[in-house]
Amino acid sequence: MLSGSWMNQRPKMTTVTDDVISGIARAMLKRYEPPSPKEKRRWPTPGALARTLDPATIQTPALRLIDDELVRLVDTDAIDKLIISMPPQEGKSVRVSYRFPQWLLEHDPDLRIAIVSYTDEMARRHGAEIKRDVERFNGVDSPIDLGIRLRQDSRAAGRWNIRDHKGSVYCVGLGGSLTGKPVDILIIDDPIKNLEEAHSELYRKRLKNFWQAVAIPRMSPTTKVVIIQTRWHEDDLAGWLQVNEPGQWRVVTIPAQAESHDDPLGRKPGEFMVSARGRRKWTQIRQNVGSYVWSALYQGAPRPAAGGLFKRAYMRYWSSLPPDVSRHGQLHGARVDLGGRIVYLDDCWRFCTVDLAASTKTSADWTVCGVWALSLDGDLILLDGDRKRIQEEQHWKLIRPLKEKWSADVVYVESRMFGTTMVYEAGKSGILVKELKADTDKVTRALPATVRAENGRLWLPTVGHMPPDCDVKIWVNELISFPNASHDDCVDVVAYAARVDATELLSQADRQSLTSGQRNGQSKRDDIRDAFESATGVDGNGKEYRDLRW
Asked: For residue range 19-65, what is the model confidence (pLDDT) as tens digits?
């Protein structure tokens, strides 16, 4: 007989299916989970490692804060997602995408690290720098040994593995793939290249798709993520993640200028950051780039372009003065008063910018022509203009009288309108017509003009100087309502003029012959180019800048 006690015992019910599922789950987690870190690091921070490998490494309070945040990210369970925003050209990419992976792998060569940037080339650059140091600091060619050895088949600069370990570095652009690549550390470095991409809804959607369809599937419960970027738009990747993944991210914003008493660097309100580039002229940069760009790129607080890019308080108006008959020139001594400064128009470079339309319907856009003078001190002066709803064959009849009245040297027209009747008729008359590559979004295109207006360098005529259909009140109303007004043709003409000024560079020979006043005006434009270059990485003296599509 069977024992009664045995009969009364109820067996533990564990199904084969449960065991199989549990085993699979453990195996999957083990595959993604990095091994336990070593007890102690040789270098306490990425910055300390950087100073050892390169004694010329600059350490600023901002970079020291980044070091602390990176250490906190990987050494504690309190956070696993970190966003850091910081002004451009302050060493953030070198510290996060170059030194941080080195520091991690020296301590734990089993980590699988992915570095993502806006292009493959930018991402691979960081991978190549890390690989170069791994090969150099091996205890043989250098007394410093990082203790990392590459696998023999690791030849690609942006994709390599560590010998006898699971660790690797994989660099990819936003258009690339991480398929089949488990990631322990994900670094996303400046996913937006420039202002044009930031204002492109299509590109921002591409960023979001990358995060959802490429990045998230490669992450495990223990993956650590750091996004380091200059802010460009309220809906860029950093902004979108804060809205759509609330409470999941630690966000550290390092503004160029402290705005509150809880500043992350402990500065007083109004105090500028210590720059990695030396004595950076923050006040000059703020003036040159304008409040919209300053708020986004330098303060890490982009604001919606929902109106108010041009403010009524920015508007400056010139007044006519009797001509100076002692002066000889094409305009016979014509001069204007710019708030107490007298400007002779024969000393200015004069040109036209045109926004063409081809309809007489009352709801259609207007054809607008503006005549501009660029003073020796860098003032952009709207001398005259006209605005009508006309057919294509009437365009030149509207533009020619203005061009001849003010002896303008060049007429600028959008590239998409370069095959029109107006361009043909101007060419027949021997008039120089140049094209403007202005086919990006209107807000981006208008930003250089907002900088000029904000700095008091955009001058408009007084009321009654232009025809009733083109009175200055119409221009001002369009500007202050932009980008929400029903028409923005005058805004386009102003934006084109600011672009012409910013991109028509003088040759070196011309600079040598400039007067003192001319050099002063050119210096102001040089400052704008320098600020633009620091914000975007585009060569301010190169063709890419001159051909920039605002």
From this structure: 655 655 555 554 445 444 446 889 999 999 999 999 999 999 999 99
3-state secondary structure of 320: strand
What is the model's pLDDT at position 307?
Answer: 57
Edge-to-edge strand ranges of the sheet holding 341-344: 319-321, 335-338, 341-344
- Which residue matches tokens 């020139």? 329
**Per-residue pLDDT tens over the stretch 420-446:** 888 889 888 888 999 887 656 788 888
Residues 360 and 218 in one domain: no
Residue 191 sits in which domain range? 46-279
Q: Give DSSP secondary structure letters for 19-65.
A: HHHHHHHHHHHHHHSPPPPPS--SSSSHHHHHHHH-TT----HHHHH
Q: Which two tokens stand for residue 264?
A: 């992350």
Give pLDDT tens digits for 8-19: 444 444 444 556
> Which of 48, 42, 52 minimizes the C-alpha distance to 66?
48
Domain CATH code at residue 105: 3.40.50.300
Phi, psi of 438, rounded to the nearest 5 degrees: -120, 55
Tell me the chain's radius of gyration from C-alpha atoms: 30
Whats the size of the chain, residue-wise? 550
Q: Kindly state whether residue 14 falls inside one of the protein's structural domains.
A: no
Ramachandran angles phi, psi of 235, nearest 5°: -110, 25
Identify the pLDDT of residue 13. 46
Structure-token pair, residue 291? 């409040």
Sheet holding 183-189, edge to edge: 159-161, 168-173, 112-117, 183-189, 219-229, 81-85, 250-253
**Total domains in the fold of the chain:** 2
Helices (H), 54-168: 61-75, 92-93, 100-107, 120-136
In whole angstroms, give the CA distance from residue 492 to residue 41. Answer: 58
